[in-house]
Amino acid sequence: MKLYTKTGDKGKTGLLGGRVSKDDLRVEAYGTIDELNSFIGKAVTELDQKVFKDLIEDLEAIQHELFDCGGDLANVMKERKYKLQEASIEVLEKRIDVLSDEVPPLKRFILPGGSEASATLHIARTVCRRAERRVVTLMNSTEDVPTIVQKYLNRLSDYFFAAARAVNHRLNVKDVEYVRGGDVFK
Protein backbone atom coordinates (compact mmCIF):
# COMPACT_ATOMS: atom_id res chain seq x y z
CA MET A 1 0.00 0.00 0.00
CA LYS A 2 1.32 3.43 -0.92
CA LEU A 3 1.18 6.21 1.66
CA TYR A 4 0.17 8.78 -0.91
CA THR A 5 -3.04 8.75 -2.89
CA LYS A 6 -2.80 12.11 -4.71
CA THR A 7 -6.52 12.63 -4.02
CA GLY A 8 -5.73 15.64 -1.83
CA ASP A 9 -3.58 17.43 -4.37
CA LYS A 10 -6.36 19.89 -5.16
CA GLY A 11 -6.95 20.95 -1.55
CA LYS A 12 -9.78 18.53 -0.76
CA THR A 13 -9.83 15.64 1.70
CA GLY A 14 -12.10 12.71 2.30
CA LEU A 15 -14.51 12.31 5.17
CA LEU A 16 -16.67 9.31 5.96
CA GLY A 17 -19.44 10.19 3.55
CA GLY A 18 -18.05 13.09 1.54
CA ARG A 19 -15.19 15.40 0.58
CA VAL A 20 -14.42 18.88 1.89
CA SER A 21 -11.75 21.53 1.66
CA LYS A 22 -8.68 20.81 3.77
CA ASP A 23 -9.33 24.00 5.73
CA ASP A 24 -12.90 22.99 6.61
CA LEU A 25 -13.83 23.50 10.27
CA ARG A 26 -14.38 19.76 10.65
CA VAL A 27 -10.89 18.98 9.34
CA GLU A 28 -9.39 21.66 11.57
CA ALA A 29 -11.11 20.12 14.61
CA TYR A 30 -10.02 16.55 14.05
CA GLY A 31 -6.60 17.73 12.85
CA THR A 32 -6.06 19.47 16.18
CA ILE A 33 -7.08 16.25 17.94
CA ASP A 34 -4.46 14.44 15.86
CA GLU A 35 -1.85 17.01 16.96
CA LEU A 36 -2.89 16.41 20.57
CA ASN A 37 -2.48 12.67 20.10
CA SER A 38 1.10 13.22 18.93
CA PHE A 39 1.98 15.16 22.09
CA ILE A 40 0.53 12.34 24.16
CA GLY A 41 2.81 9.91 22.32
CA LYS A 42 5.75 12.17 23.18
CA ALA A 43 4.71 12.28 26.84
CA VAL A 44 4.55 8.47 26.98
CA THR A 45 8.17 8.26 25.75
CA GLU A 46 9.22 10.56 28.59
CA LEU A 47 7.64 8.50 31.38
CA ASP A 48 9.45 5.75 33.25
CA GLN A 49 7.58 2.47 32.61
CA LYS A 50 7.68 1.41 36.28
CA VAL A 51 7.00 4.68 38.07
CA PHE A 52 4.24 5.74 35.69
CA LYS A 53 2.67 2.44 34.61
CA ASP A 54 -0.82 3.72 35.47
CA LEU A 55 -0.37 6.98 33.55
CA ILE A 56 1.06 5.21 30.52
CA GLU A 57 -1.98 2.91 30.49
CA ASP A 58 -4.26 5.95 30.78
CA LEU A 59 -2.48 7.79 27.99
CA GLU A 60 -2.52 4.84 25.61
CA ALA A 61 -6.27 4.39 26.21
CA ILE A 62 -6.75 8.12 25.63
CA GLN A 63 -4.89 7.89 22.32
CA HIS A 64 -7.38 5.28 21.13
CA GLU A 65 -10.29 7.42 22.33
CA LEU A 66 -8.89 10.42 20.46
CA PHE A 67 -8.87 8.34 17.27
CA ASP A 68 -12.54 7.62 18.05
CA CYS A 69 -13.15 11.37 18.46
CA GLY A 70 -11.50 12.12 15.12
CA GLY A 71 -13.47 9.38 13.40
CA ASP A 72 -16.71 10.59 14.94
CA LEU A 73 -16.02 14.15 13.75
CA ALA A 74 -15.06 12.94 10.26
CA ASN A 75 -18.30 10.97 9.90
CA VAL A 76 -20.84 12.90 7.82
CA MET A 77 -22.87 9.93 6.60
CA LYS A 78 -26.64 10.11 7.04
CA GLU A 79 -26.73 6.98 9.19
CA ARG A 80 -24.01 7.11 11.84
CA LYS A 81 -22.88 5.15 14.82
CA TYR A 82 -20.41 7.03 16.99
CA LYS A 83 -17.55 5.26 18.75
CA LEU A 84 -16.89 7.54 21.72
CA GLN A 85 -19.08 6.68 24.69
CA GLU A 86 -20.00 8.40 27.95
CA ALA A 87 -18.09 5.68 29.86
CA SER A 88 -14.82 7.22 28.62
CA ILE A 89 -15.68 10.48 30.37
CA GLU A 90 -16.53 8.63 33.58
CA VAL A 91 -13.15 6.89 33.52
CA LEU A 92 -11.41 10.25 33.08
CA GLU A 93 -13.28 11.71 36.04
CA LYS A 94 -12.26 8.80 38.29
CA ARG A 95 -8.63 9.09 37.22
CA ILE A 96 -8.65 12.88 37.77
CA ASP A 97 -9.90 12.29 41.31
CA VAL A 98 -7.23 9.64 42.01
CA LEU A 99 -4.43 11.80 40.64
CA SER A 100 -5.68 14.91 42.42
CA ASP A 101 -5.72 13.06 45.74
CA GLU A 102 -2.07 12.13 45.18
CA VAL A 103 -0.74 15.71 45.10
CA PRO A 104 -0.78 18.59 47.59
CA PRO A 105 -3.77 20.92 47.27
CA LEU A 106 -3.34 24.03 45.14
CA LYS A 107 -3.65 27.54 46.47
CA ARG A 108 -2.41 29.41 43.41
CA PHE A 109 -2.16 28.90 39.71
CA ILE A 110 0.96 27.00 38.65
CA LEU A 111 3.29 27.55 35.75
CA PRO A 112 3.49 24.78 33.16
CA GLY A 113 6.71 22.84 33.53
CA GLY A 114 8.74 21.05 36.13
CA SER A 115 9.90 17.75 34.68
CA GLU A 116 10.10 17.11 30.95
CA ALA A 117 7.09 14.77 30.95
CA SER A 118 5.04 17.20 33.03
CA ALA A 119 5.85 20.02 30.60
CA THR A 120 4.75 17.83 27.69
CA LEU A 121 1.50 16.99 29.48
CA HIS A 122 0.90 20.73 29.96
CA ILE A 123 1.41 21.19 26.21
CA ALA A 124 -1.11 18.40 25.66
CA ARG A 125 -3.50 20.23 28.01
CA THR A 126 -3.29 23.45 26.02
CA VAL A 127 -3.60 21.70 22.65
CA CYS A 128 -6.59 19.84 24.08
CA ARG A 129 -8.20 23.16 25.00
CA ARG A 130 -7.59 24.40 21.45
CA ALA A 131 -9.12 21.20 20.05
CA GLU A 132 -12.15 21.79 22.25
CA ARG A 133 -12.45 25.36 20.93
CA ARG A 134 -12.29 24.06 17.36
CA VAL A 135 -15.03 21.52 18.12
CA VAL A 136 -17.20 24.25 19.69
CA THR A 137 -16.70 26.40 16.57
CA LEU A 138 -17.76 23.42 14.48
CA MET A 139 -20.77 22.80 16.74
CA ASN A 140 -21.81 26.44 16.36
CA SER A 141 -21.63 26.18 12.58
CA THR A 142 -23.65 22.96 12.23
CA GLU A 143 -25.90 20.79 14.33
CA ASP A 144 -24.22 17.76 12.81
CA VAL A 145 -21.55 17.17 15.48
CA PRO A 146 -21.46 14.57 18.27
CA THR A 147 -21.51 16.76 21.41
CA ILE A 148 -19.84 14.05 23.45
CA VAL A 149 -16.53 14.90 21.74
CA GLN A 150 -16.58 18.42 23.21
CA LYS A 151 -17.48 17.10 26.65
CA TYR A 152 -14.71 14.49 26.46
CA LEU A 153 -12.10 17.09 25.45
CA ASN A 154 -13.24 19.38 28.25
CA ARG A 155 -12.67 16.65 30.80
CA LEU A 156 -9.48 15.45 29.13
CA SER A 157 -7.76 18.82 29.58
CA ASP A 158 -8.47 18.52 33.31
CA TYR A 159 -6.96 15.04 33.25
CA PHE A 160 -3.75 16.39 31.68
CA PHE A 161 -3.48 19.03 34.40
CA ALA A 162 -3.89 16.40 37.13
CA ALA A 163 -1.47 14.03 35.39
CA ALA A 164 1.18 16.75 34.95
CA ARG A 165 1.02 17.54 38.66
CA ALA A 166 1.18 13.85 39.58
CA VAL A 167 4.27 13.37 37.40
CA ASN A 168 6.09 16.22 39.13
CA HIS A 169 5.00 14.96 42.54
CA ARG A 170 6.23 11.41 41.92
CA LEU A 171 9.56 12.80 40.70
CA ASN A 172 9.83 15.13 43.72
CA VAL A 173 9.76 18.17 41.44
CA LYS A 174 7.84 21.09 42.90
CA ASP A 175 5.18 22.81 40.86
CA VAL A 176 6.13 26.45 40.40
CA GLU A 177 3.38 28.73 41.65
CA TYR A 178 2.40 31.85 39.79
CA VAL A 179 3.59 34.42 42.32
CA ARG A 180 2.01 37.57 40.90
CA GLY A 181 -1.46 36.40 41.79
CA GLY A 182 -3.12 35.68 45.08
CA ASP A 183 -4.60 32.51 46.43
CA VAL A 184 -7.38 31.42 44.08
CA PHE A 185 -8.08 27.91 45.34
CA LYS A 186 -9.53 27.47 48.82
UniProtKB/TrEMBL annotation:
Broad class of enzyme this protein falls into: transferase
Cobalamin adenosyltransferase-like domain mapped to chain residues: 3-166
Key words of the record: ATP-binding, Cobalamin biosynthesis, Nucleotide-binding, Transferase
Residue ranges of the TM segments: none
GO BP: cobalamin biosynthetic process
Matching Pfam families: Cob_adeno_trans
InterPro entries: CblAdoTrfase-like, CblAdoTrfase-like_sf, PduO-typ
SUPFAM superfamilies: Cobalamin adenosyltransferase-like (SSF89028)
Entry EC no(s): 2.5.1.17
Catalytic activity: 2 cob(II)alamin + reduced [electron-transfer flavoprotein] + 2 ATP = 2 adenosylcob(III)alamin + 2 triphosphate + oxidized [electron-transfer flavoprotein] + 3 H(+); 2 cob(II)yrinate a,c diamide + reduced [electron-transfer flavoprotein] + 2 ATP = 2 adenosylcob(III)yrinate a,c-diamide + 2 triphosphate + oxidized [electron-transfer flavoprotein] + 3 H(+)
GO molecular function terms noted in the UniProt entry: ATP binding; corrinoid adenosyltransferase activity
Pathway listed: Cofactor biosynthesis; adenosylcobalamin biosynthesis; adenosylcobalamin from cob(II)yrinate a,c-diamide: step 2/7
Top-rank lineage group of the source organism: Bacteria
Subunit architecture: Homotrimer.
Family the entry assigns: Belongs to the Cob(I)alamin adenosyltransferase family.
Protein name (database record): Corrinoid adenosyltransferase
Lineage of producing organism: Bacteria, Bacillati, Bacillota, Bacilli, Bacillales
